[in-house]
Amino acid sequence: MDSLAPWAADPRRSRGRLHLEAPPEGRDEFQRDRDRIVHCGAFRRLEYKTQVFVNHEGDLFRTRLTHSIEVAQIARTIARRLRLNEDLTEAISLAHDLGHTPFGHAGQDALNRCMQPWGGFEHNLQSLRVVDSLEQRYGAYDGLNLCFETREGVLKHCSPANAARLGEVGRRFLEQTRPSLEAQLANVADEIAYVNHDVDDGIRSGLITVPQLMSVALFARHHQEAATRYPGVGERRQVYETIRRMINTLVLDLIDSSGAAIAERSPGSVDEVRAAPTLIAFSPAVEQHKRQLKQFLFENLYRHYRVVRMTAKAARIVSDLFEAFVADPRLLPSEHRRNAEDDRHRAIADYIAGMTDRYAIKEHRRLFSVDEV
Ligand code: MG
Q1: Which of 51, 152, 315, 324 could form a disulfide with 62 if both were Cys (CB 3.0 to 4.6 A apart)?
Q2: Measured between alpha carbons, how far is 280 from 271 in angstroms, rounded to an integer?
Q3: Which domains does the chain have, with CATH numbers?
Q4: Span 348-359, pLDDT tens digits
């Protein structure tokens, strides 16, 4: 704890929880948050939620769970080097995708379209809803009752209209201030994780190829290095050697460049961090390289016709479910039907958002296929 920098979030100075609780024993406030996240149901469901590939497309592809673990690993490494709070960084990283719908972005876009007349659907806001109210496991309150600092990190983006309704945790979107460095870091670690594992999964799926990727500077440089060092090991291993080098380059650059920005600004507290510009950032050259890789993935993987076909099917499942439940809430399982008495559309969105890919597919079959019960 004493190695924490003045710009790091200190669990002894947390802004607190929504519901007052006795301090934890044997661990600090942010460790307790991390533990609550790992033990919650929404965390376990991440195992069966799409990152890019739908769960049944293959056993080796990333899911939201393995993605979240990779984000936490990368973020913690960097947090330690920058003397940030590792536990808070880990908590935010593990929780950042809890509000994701089944079927990745296609599912979220479909649900957002369905919910347009009723306030829309944002997955970051949904992650906060999960930890603030939808997880129901404690006797004294709804939600996981996490610290302000963890909740602030989970709410990565938010529309001004929604921010205005959220009170303290939404304020930074209205005042244009920054979150803690731990939250900024989890956000960038998310990007490092997915651009790299999507290259890996993309190649494995056959949707993108090594020769194609040689047009991307970051990949080409490290692939040449790997192929020179290990010419006879075969393409699969060369790809791994390339990806580990790319992750390393991005991580080291982020440490150097953010470390320099922090040293220059030298914030004396988290409040000074919040008032400062974004301090966790790549150098301009590496930022440019990362952007080129992202652009490549957008054009060649996320918009590949086979991905688009699967996502179109997924979007249809989400809209079908939504319309069926809105038309007849008696189709909802009893617990969700009770929630629907207050706000039908939001309760239906919560129910659908909580589904795993395979549960959504099954539920769709149960509702629309007469030979299914
Ligand atoms: Mg993510």
Answers
A1: 51
A2: 16
A3: 11-307 (1.10.3210.10), 308-368 (no CATH)
A4: 999 999 999 999
